[in-house]
Amino acid sequence: NQALSSLLKIDVSGRRTLNKEKTAEVQRNEERVHTPASIFKKLREILITEQKVFFLDDNYLPNPGHMVEFTADLRKNPLIQTMDAIVGLIDMAITFSNEPKKKGGHKPKPDENKIIKKQMEKFLESLKTGDTTDIVSDTLANKYRAVITLEHEFLNDPTMSDLVDGHFKVLGKIIRVITDNSCSINLIRKTALSAMPKKVLTNMFSALSNLQTEGGFDIPPIELEIEGPVIHVIPIAIFS
């Protein structure tokens, strides 16, 4: 609702007033209210009719400022998704390793897993700072990938469980285009980690990458940046 109200300064209600019948005077006041979905449907129809939207296919060359629509499989920021999974696994380990405290026994030592979990939660919190979050697509029809920046206040579900790992249509505006792998979009650009050298970051997260390649854990490959060709998109809507 807030997203559309900031885009459209219009009265979205229709009224029919004062309808008199011959036998008796009856006043009727009927009101029709458009939902966000119906307003978006109308907006999309207008944009397509006026040829303001480019449909992303293998012939499309993206440009900043273009309104585009494309279909894609969407995923969370890979680093955040991995850290969420690891914190969950440590939480399960703590649950199954808890032992009842014996009467008269010594005070138990702090559980190492709990210390690690607390440290990782603090790190994860720093990754999620700010009012926006990034999700990424797989390779699109024109061989580009997409980084889509979402504002938290417009999410139906803050955990994005209804949004990621699914096949969706995205309508939005391109704000940046990178045509080759000489440049990239940094997925940790909003955090203090972005100031660290790339080599240091690679070494830091190599252990997490090994969980997938050597440990067999079902976690996504660690990606700190998305190399070109890639487009950066601010969405109007993500729908199915």
Description:
With 240 residues, this protein is α+β, with helices and mostly antiparallel strands. 30% of the residues lie in helices and 27% in strands. The protein contains 5 helices and 10 strands, in the order αββαββααββββαββ. It has helices spanning 2-7, 36-49, 78-97, 112-127, 198-213; strands spanning 13-17, 29-33, 53-55, 67-76, 132-137, 145-151, 166-178, 184-186, 225-227, 230-239. The strands form 3 sheets. The protein has a 5-stranded mixed barrel. Strands 1-2 form a two-stranded antiparallel sheet. The longest helix has 20 residues, at 78-97. Mean pLDDT is 80; it is low at 6-10.
Features:
240 residues, alpha+beta, two-stranded antiparallel sheet, globular
Short structural description:
The protein is built from five helices and ten strands; from the N terminus they run H-E-E-H-E-E-H-H-E-E-E-E-H-E-E.
User: What is the ordering of alpha helices and beta strands?
Assistant: HEEHEEHHEEEEHEE
Q: How far do the termini sit from each other?
A: 18 Å
Sheet with the most strands: spatial strand order? 4-5-6-10-7
Shape: globular
Quote the average pLDDT.
80
Range of strand content:
25-35%
Enumerate the spans where pLDDT stays under 50 for 5 or more consecutive residues.
6-10
